[in-house]
Amino acid sequence: MESAAGTIEGVTSWQTRAQAALALVAFGVVGAVGYTLRPREARLAPAVLERLDPKATIETRGGDVIQLKGSRQDARIEFESQVTYDTGETKLIGVKVSVDNRAGRSYTITGKEARVGEDQTSYDLQGDVKLETNDGLTAFSEQATYADAENIVKAPGPVRFTRGRMSGTGIGFTYDEQRDTLWLLDQAVIHVAPEGTSGPMDVMAGAFGFARTDRYMRFERTMHMDREGQTIDANEAVVHLFTDRDEPDLIELRGDSRVSGGTGMGALQSMSARDMNLDYRDDGRSLQQATLAGQSAIQLAGKGGASGQALEGEFLEISLAPDGSVSSLSSRQNVTVTLPATRDTAARTIRSNVLTATGGAQGLSAMNFTEGVNYTEAATRTQGARVARAQSLVAALDPAAGTLQEATFTGTFQFADGPLTATSNLAKYRIGAGTLALSGKQGTADPQIKDEALTIEATTIDVTLNPRRMVATGKVRSALLPPGKSAGAAGPGKRPGLLSDQDPVQIIAESLTYDEVQRRGEYQGQAVLLQGQTQINADSLTIDESKGDLIAVGKVITSLAILRKNATAGTPSPATIGRSGSFTYTDQGRRATYLTAATLDGETGNLRAEKIEIVLAPEENSLSRLEAIDKVTALVDKRTVTGARLSYVPADEKYVVNGAPVTMVDADCQELSGKTLTFFKASDRVQVDGNDEIRTQTKGGGKCAPTPK
To answer: Which of 352 and 362 is assigned the larger pLDDT?
Structure first.
């Protein structure tokens, strides 16, 4: 009974729970029906959006697109609105493209609108386009394109940019994000503002490139630069910058390059060449070295406003000291150096194939020219032009004035100063003194000098150019040339009457001093004069062409061509040989005088005396009168006469001898003596005049005494 009761209780409990669940379901159904049958509320219509472009198929307000490379954000495109057309073209309004941390560089590009390329990675921006980089570069344009595949921003129209002190404008712009380069493609104008001690810089060019990582600027299609008073021009230029600042470290100019002015040039006033490299010191302004190639030329600054030295050559390199002075200089091929005229010196031009020069704080002090030298000195009011040639030249300069002080020529030296010419192997030209020192053989030839008056060859020749004076030493060989209409500044000389005007006079000696103004030549050391039959030997010889005089001193031997009386034209005259301690010819009286142990041998006989004088006829070199004085001994037609004085007149062939007494001994040893003896050669007649104190004596017989020697 208990189990049945338990079963009944369990059934009753299940039924009770089922009835409760059915009641709940019924209640829910009734509630749902009631809610459904409730009165409905009225709903408002949504607001209509204003279309950005009626032609657009899709328009979006506000957007932000992030581009990833791996897990890193590479680029972000933000826009105020987006419009898409049925062609698939998309346009962004109020766009901003941000490129983050590519090789440490980030930049943004903004514009009023941008058209998105089909690949969704290129953009064509229009209106108030602005490029900004994280290192301070800002560029502005009205249009720009950006392709993410190239990482290049391009702007086709007018553009301007700024970066620190630098700003610029141009037509056409590119920014290469990978290379970190900026280009203005046309009509580039660049300005660098002054800062601290750095001055401004302005550049105009057909195009401008700025490689910021590689630290250089490039200018193309005719560049003009103004930099702290300095102007630089070239067809193209590359400006290498210091790593820490936008200051020039090296400027490379290519094509029609020119530089002038500026405080950083130091002693350089201007430079020009086809190509040029300018290397600056650490301050970026002071020039340290310049290398020029192709028709190179430099102009050095003069002192006190005067013109400076000018140098030209195919290739030229110049180095400047920290104070701006030229420390060294070199040039090759077609070298030309021009030294300007000063108040005291003429302008000079020196040409060669190679030049090296050195200097100090004051300027250049030495120039060395090699491989063929051509030296030209311009004419002045007091002198004519001078020209010299040699294989090489060492020029010593006055650094302060920049003028030539001394020029040393070596190898095949040739010199011309009006009619004066000179040759030697070595020559030293002292500018201040106006002297030229010649030495050294050219092959087998000694130094030589020649002008309208004479020629000289010797071991050494020193010439004072103005007024002309020459000193020659060592195996001197000279020639006095026939007088011309114009023989130098002193005019034509007057040749001694003993010598012909038609032929040169050759003179040999150990040394010579010749003064052109005085027309006086002094020959020392075994001097020998030669002209035709005339010869004069002496220890020293002086010829004075201002007066026509001649002086020979020391062991004199003369051989003179004294014309015969009534001699047939063209018939040579026998030489008249004279010896003495000295010999003088004075043209004013046409008188030749032998002094000290004089002897004379010729048609007049053999004559000895302390002094013998020959007087020539006024119009020809025939004997007009002969005088012998003191200790006279004459041998005439085998007659020996002694006395104190002898006179001979060729016109009547009469000898007159005076003395106390006068004696004559003939070939038969017949002796006559008296106070005066007269001998008529033509009639072979002797006349002796005595007086009361001295009796005329005639002696004969015996052996004749030897003829005096």
So the answer is: 352
Class of domain 606-709: mainly beta
Residue identified by tokens 């019924």 is 26
In sequence order, the 6+-apart residues with CB closer than 8 A to the CB of 340 are 302, 306, 307, 308, 309, 310, 347, 402
Q: In one letter, which amino acid is 87? A: T
If we measure between CA atoms, which residue out of 334, 329, 331 comes closest to residue 315?
331
Comparing CA positions, the residue from 322, 329, 237 lying closest to residue 275 is 237
- Give residue-wise pLDDT tens across range 611-627: 999 999 988 888 999 99
Which amino acid belongs to residue 409?
Answer: F
pTM above 0.90, yes or no: no
Domain ranges of the chain: 606-709
Cα–Cα distance between 651 and 591 in angstroms, integer?
17
Residue 246, SS3 per DSSP: coil
Going by C-alpha positions, the residue among 350, 255, 351 that lies closest to residue 294 is 255
Helix (H, G, I), strand (E, B) or coil at 507: strand
* 83-119 pLDDT per residue, tens: 888 777 888 899 998 887 666 678 899 999 988 877 6
Q: How far apart are CA 417 and CA 479, in angstroms?
A: 19
User: What is the per-residue burial (b if ≥16 Cβ within 10 Å, else e) of 9-25?
Assistant: eeeeeeeeeeeeeeeee
Q: What does the DSSP 8-state code read for residue 322?
A: T
Q: What is the DSSP string of 374-439?
A: EEEE---SSS--EEEEESEEEEEEETTTTEEEEEEEEEEEEEEETTEEEEEEEEEEETTTTEEEEE
Once rounded to an integer, what is the mean pLDDT over residues 494-506?
Answer: 91
Give the three-state DSSP class for 3: helix
What burial letters (b/e) apply to 545-581, b meaning 16+ CB within 10 Å?
bebbbbbbbbebbbbbbbeeeeeeeeeebebbebbbb
Q: Could you tell me if 423 and 416 are in contact, meaning their C-beta atoms sit under 8 angstroms apart?
A: no
Q: Classify strands 373-377 and 386-390 as parallel, antiparallel or unpaired.
A: antiparallel
* Among 536, 528, 493, 486, residue whose Cα is nearest residue 514: 493
Q: Is 504 helix (H, G, I), strand (E, B) or coil?
A: coil
Distance CA 388, CA 414 (A): 5
Tokens found for residue 186: 């046309």
